Q: What sequence folds into this?
């Protein structure tokens, strides 16, 4: 593993998600449609370690090759795949070569996928996050909100519960105000509307349209 030895939120989420993968086994459900824990673990390994295939995660015409590589990984022994994710990126990959890239990019990625696994299991409850992580997630929402909500058919205002913080995510009428903790707003913004503990205020039809919108990257 090439990350700095100091603890970061990305490292903590990686470790916690790896532990959860181990505990649940390869066939547990996730919030990623059609994916089990084995599929999600394989996706995370492809994303970090398979430079030849990772582009297909975002580029549509490359997606078939990415799916093929991911399926091959998912068919390998599950403890081996989870072990690769736990270990982290290889030295020569971008995540291994660029200092700070792991913390910059993977904190949100791992937190969301950690919740994809947690919230697909019965009896889940939201986690209490460290204050600095909560603040970082809110900053990410403020800077990225217009990207995350670009496909929203209605206007969106994000309101961070317990603070006076607000952020405009989509300028349009009618508008819906989405209120919650930073992690809940982030999950909502990344398309996990049905599993984010938020309140929505606005015209009922606008709320319904927002709940069904394809949000996220």
A:
């Amino acid at each position: 593993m090439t990350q700095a030895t100091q603890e970061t939120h990305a490292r903590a989420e990686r470790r916690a998600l790896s532990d959860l993968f181990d505990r649940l086994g390869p066939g547990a459900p996730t919030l990623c449609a059609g994916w089990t824990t084995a599929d999600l673990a394989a996706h995370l390994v492809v994303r970090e370690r398979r430079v030849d295939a990772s582009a297909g995660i975002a580029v549509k015409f490359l997606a078939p090759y990415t799916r093929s590589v991911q399926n091959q990984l998912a068919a390998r022994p599950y403890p081996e795949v989870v072990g690769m994710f736990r270990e982290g990126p290889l030295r020569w990959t971008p995540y291994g070569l660029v200092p700070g890239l792991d913390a910059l990019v993977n904190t949100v990625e791992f937190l969301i996928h950690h919740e994809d696994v947690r919230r697909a299991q019965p009896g889940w409850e939201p986690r209490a996050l460290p204050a600095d992580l909560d603040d970082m997630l809110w900053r990410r929402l403020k800077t990225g909100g217009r990207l995350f909500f670009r496909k929203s058919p209605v206007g969106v205002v994000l309101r961070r519960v317990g603070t006076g913080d607000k952020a405009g995510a989509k300028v349009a009428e009618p508008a819906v105000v989405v209120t919650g903790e930073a992690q809940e707003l982030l999950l909502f913004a990344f398309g996990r509307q049905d599993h984010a503990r938020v309140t929505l205020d606005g015209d009922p039809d606008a709320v319904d349209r927002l709940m069904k919108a394809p949000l996220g990257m």
About this structure: The radius of gyration is 18 Å. The mean pLDDT is 90. The chain has ten helices and four strands.
